[in-house]
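$ run holo --ligand "nicotinamide-adenine-dinucleotide" --emit tokens
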Amino acid sequence: MPALEDNLARLQELLARHAAGPVLNRIAGEDRPAASGRTFRTESPVDGSPIAEVARSGAEDVDAAARAARAAFPEWAAMDGARRRDLLHRIADAIEARAEEIALLECWDTGQAWRFMSKAALRGAENFRFFADRAPSARDGLALPSPTLMNITGRVPIGPVGVITPWNTPFMLSTWKIAPALAAGCTVVHKPAEFSPITARLLVEIAEEAGLPPGVLNLVNGIGEEAGVALTEHPDIRAIAFVGESRTGSQIMAQGAPTLKRVHLELGGKNPVIVFADADLDRALDAVVFMIYSLNGERCTSSSRLLIERTIAEDFVARLTERVRRLKVGHPLDPATEVGPLIHPVHREKVCSYFRIAREEGATIAAGGRAIEGPGCYVEPTLLTGARPEMRIAQEEIFGPVLTVIPFDSEEEAIGIANGTRYGLTAYVWTSDLTRGFRVTDRLEAGMIWVNSENVRHLPTPFGGVKASGIGRDGGDYSFDFYMEHKHVGFATGRHPIPRLGA
Ligand code: NAD
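-- output --
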């Protein structure tokens, strides 16, 4: 495994290559600055040093990208699925070949630790392979004969789509949306998060080098309220696949309403992990720590509420506190680092505001609870105990390395607390009682639930949330249901009587 010094040396080379000049848009296979000539600057969360000047696009740039996607659509949609499959596999090959480069840049751009990001780029390649293999059958349908008709169904790609992504694991999340869209035969305009634009640029370069025709994947950088809004309002864009905050999701629905956009929203969470006294507590402890402190807690599926059965709470929380205090906070490019800096000073301020809120609400800060002095957006991994379900620290998505502990006395109470927020993305249940496992998961309001496991993604399964955590599902065939339209054609099989009017 490379040491911090090796990673830093390599990063300097990469920054000289990828961030020395402005990060431009990529439209119809061409590099383009924003039409206005404007840029914005990004800074590394590690030490606040400038990374890049980035094209600050507006409606004019989005319009050019949407037109390019519309122009490229007919040929791409008509391409034989097997050819699309082969091309998407070539993109996956190229991502694998450049996985280290992607991971290094992403660590610097986002503050996420190398130990997780080095795998995230490979997961991006996996996303391309998984959907590549499904491309040849994406248009398949059914034969549904009736007495007088041969009814056949098939699927056709919906058209040019917009993909809007957040900053927490930007490369992986972009591939998660873009790969199925391309496999389905859609063309794409991608608007990545303004805090972390570097690897989105790399993705479009990789894709075009691998042979993706110009205009099939277009990149428009910019601010959400400018480029993002313009994309959601553009009449040529048939659907918006969005990953981000719940508040932004509802804005996007409103912005897309006049043009009747189909929307797929993967939003926030305040996910519970419920630990019953009969669970394998050593494994439960490992999973509880992993699912909130990995990826700096900037993870939509993080288990940010620990619901712990009161009979074991004292002992479990004591062990948990020890582990949280020992978490290794450090430079994201250090392979030993477990928690890196948060994405941006504004986000760090938001996370830290919950330390004050926790005190005001009467909770106990059992570990952490402070920003770390010095350069960079570092905060101490934090454990909040003595919380009640109605407190803000138990209701609101903090999106940082902060875990709120709530004890419970009965299964009924645990389910009530778990379901008692506006969110419903994931839930985790730890018990050795199989029957209880079934009973509890049946009643939990969440799109995805794991029993005696941390979150382990399996690509054919449906990914998505309920309530304020989202609308729609990704994964397997579910992704194609979003990026494609079902179409029915009925062929008369004989000369059935047609009602004769005015005869
Ligand atoms: P965000 O909603 O602030 O921004 C996400 C993207 O939307 C960015 O590209 C931004 O520029 C753009 N945007 C902002 N306002 C817009 C508007 N009015 N119209 C169009 N685009 C707009 O989210 P974030 O802070 O970047 O990401 C963190 C959030 O993402 C958390 O809430 C997290 O839970 C969520 N998330 C969810 C999932 C999931 O799968 N459910 C995965 C990762 C992150």
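-- notes --
Residues 272-451 form a domain with the Aldehyde Dehydrogenase; Chain A, domain 2 fold (CATH 3.40.309.10).
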